[in-house]
């Protein structure tokens, strides 16, 4: 059994930011990441981020990851242990964690735990939706932006939220044809700047349209689309065929809640936040003592808020165990203000409403 | 196919890694996961679903879905999308190859 002040599960923007603040406060931290590099979703984001300067807006996603990773330089191995290729497979209510790495299981006994596991992609229900050739937007981004592989000859995107639009644009940058973007609603979900850019490049965005069926023997060959009315009912006779070897599904994310559910944290199902999220106090502590959560796992939002939440979590974990951050009080106020600013206005409405339901605001 | 030109990213596809997939020699590059290298070699059908034996592909590519399990160097159920490719790896899938292209 390995004893640590703090074990953080997930090395995305939330987990990295939490680690930095907890380390500054003097905690001994273990950071567990199942992939072979840190950065979470950021490492495949090639676009410049929206938002405010404080959260590195106008910087490309993968460069933000580098900044957050560099922030952890200079801590001794005793203070900071980073485990890559390591998956946390169990979290128990007494804060014992089981970690799987290179064929071995290890047990950690933590005084506090921060869960920052992010999210997984939602799937869409239609006939043959499991055929090879149908992938989540994250998979497409990974194949293309990390390994430099074109996912196919042409791609049909399902979903016109920001992720769908951004990934469609990234496909064009990687030299892949995007035949169309399908959107079930009557309007485009993402920012219009992204949509206009795609339209200028000749990509059609078909609203009131969805996939009815995928066709292919061993892998995708074509799809059948169908038009929807304002009540999202199929319009008979509006089916059309489209040849494509790749269908990219981008219909939202849901929090990777399993570890918290396992630890007995009280979870609530909030559609605005993407599904099951932990009930937590304003200190980001869940219903299990000294188990905290931040980032997409507490509600699908953005890297900007994930970083701020991560910092707050790191600070709270330290405070509760009596570690003093050099400018803790001011930092706490600053961070809470930053979150308020990020969640202002019409774009923040969904998240505000969701958080209100969890009883946080 | 590999991305040849990209306005933002630079890919370093230089150091080849040689491995076999169902006894066939294949080539990937340093930094590839097994799954990425297989995908680049044209493999799309990674596994069969447990009950209905329906073909499954590299659905999530980040270790969430379990569609990409194969036998690697004799070890069963390796997540090929998360495991780095190494020289001389012997990768074996359970899929019925005759139906593949
Ligand atoms: C296409 C796209 C565009 C985006 N654009 C923007 C933008 O412009 N601005 C913005 O602010 N945000 C943007 N985002 C959102 C942003 O990327 C996410 O909100 C953010 O990455 C969430 O951070 P996180 O740390 O909570 O989760 P993640 O980044 O998902 O990190 C979670 C990490 O935990 C690891 N993990 C999970 N389970 C385990 C386990 N059991 N054991 C060990 N490790 C585990 C994962 O491997 C991962 O590395 C975009 C997202 C996408 C997909
Ligand atoms: S493709 Fe989903 S786990 Fe590997």
Task: Note down, in words, how this protein is organized.
The complex is a heterodimer of chains A (361) and B (101). Chain A is of the alpha/beta class and 361 residues long. Chain A is 28% helix and 26% strand. Chain A folds into two domains: 2-120 and 253-358, 3-Layer(bba) Sandwich (FAD/NAD(P)-binding domain); 123-249, FAD/NAD(P)-binding domain (3-Layer(bba) Sandwich), CATH 3.50.50.60. Chain A has nine helices and 19 strands. The model of chain A has no long low-confidence stretch (mean pLDDT 95). With 101 residues, chain B is mainly beta. Chain B has one helix and seven strands. A five-stranded mixed beta sheet of chain B has the order 2-1-7-5-6, covered by helices on one side. Chain B starts with 15 loop residues before the first strand and ends in a 9-residue tail after the last strand. Chain A binds chain B through residues 34-36, 46, 60, 85, 87, 103, 120-121, 130-136, 138-139, 142-151, 173-175, 217-219, 256, and chain B through 1-9, 11, 13, 31-33, 36, 39-40, 44-46, 49, 54-65, 75, 81-82, 84, 99-101. Residues 9-15, 32-35, 40-42, 45, 49-51, 87-88, 116-119, 138, 163, 166-167, 256, 295-297, 301-304, 306 of chain A line the site of flavin-adenine dinucleotide.
């Amino acid at each position: 059994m390995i004893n640590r002040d703090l074990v953080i599960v997930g090395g995305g923007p939330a987990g990295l930011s939490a680690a930095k603040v907890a380390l500054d406060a003097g905690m001994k931290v273990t950071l567990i990441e199942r992939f072979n590099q840190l950065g979470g979703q950021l490492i495949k984001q090639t676009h410049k981020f929206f938002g405010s300067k404080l959260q590195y807006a106008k910087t490309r996603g993968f460069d933000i990851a580098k900044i957050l990773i560099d922030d952890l330089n200079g801590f001794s191995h005793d203070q900071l242990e980073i485990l890559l290729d390591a998956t946390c497979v169990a979290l128990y209510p007494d804060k014992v964690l089981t970690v799987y790495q290179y064929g071995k299981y290890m047990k950690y006994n933590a005084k506090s735990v921060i869960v920052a596991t992010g999210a997984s992609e939602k799937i869409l229900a239609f006939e043959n939706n499991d055929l090879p050739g149908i992938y989540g937007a994250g998979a497409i981004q990974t194949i293309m932006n990390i390994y430099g592989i074109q996912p196919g000859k042409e791609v049909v995107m399902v979903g016109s939220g920001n992720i769908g639009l951004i990934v469609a644009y990234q496909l064009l940058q990687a030299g892949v044809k995007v035949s169309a973007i399908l959107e079930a609603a009557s309007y485009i979900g993402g920012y219009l700047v992204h949509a206009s850019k795609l339209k200028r490049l000749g990509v059609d965005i078909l609203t009131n349209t969805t996939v009815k069926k995928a066709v292919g023997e061993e892998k995708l060959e074509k799809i059948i689309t169908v038009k929807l009315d304002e009540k999202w009912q199929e319009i008979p006779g509006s089916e059309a065929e489209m040849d494509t070897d790749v269908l990219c599904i981008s219909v939202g994310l849901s929090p990777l809640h399993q570890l918290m559910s396992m630890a007995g944290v009280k979870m609530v199902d909030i559609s605005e936040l993407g599904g099951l999220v932990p009930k937590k106090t304003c200190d980001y502590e869940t219903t299990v003592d000294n188990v905290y959560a931040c980032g997409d796992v507490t509600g699908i939002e953005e890297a900007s808020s994930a970083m701020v939440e991560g910092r707050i979590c790191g600070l709270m974990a330290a405070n509760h165990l009596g570690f003093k951050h050099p400018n803790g009080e001011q930092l706490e106020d600053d961070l809470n203000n930053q979150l308020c600013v990020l969640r202002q206005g019409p774009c923040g409405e969904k998240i505000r409403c969701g958080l209100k339901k969890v009883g946080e605001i | 196919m590999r991305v040849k030109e990209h306005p933002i990213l630079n890919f370093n596809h230089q150091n080849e890694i040689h491995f076999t997939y169902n006894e066939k020699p294949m080539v990937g590059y340093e930094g590839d996961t097994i799954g990425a290298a297989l995908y680049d070699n044209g493999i799309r059908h990674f596994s069969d679903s447990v009950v209905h034996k329906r073909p499954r592909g590299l659905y999530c590519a980040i270790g969430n879905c379990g569609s990409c399990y194969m036998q690697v160097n004799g070890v069963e159920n390796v997540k090929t999308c998360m495991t780095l490719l190494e020289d001389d790896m012997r990768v074996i899938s359970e899929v019925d190859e005759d139906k593949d292209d």
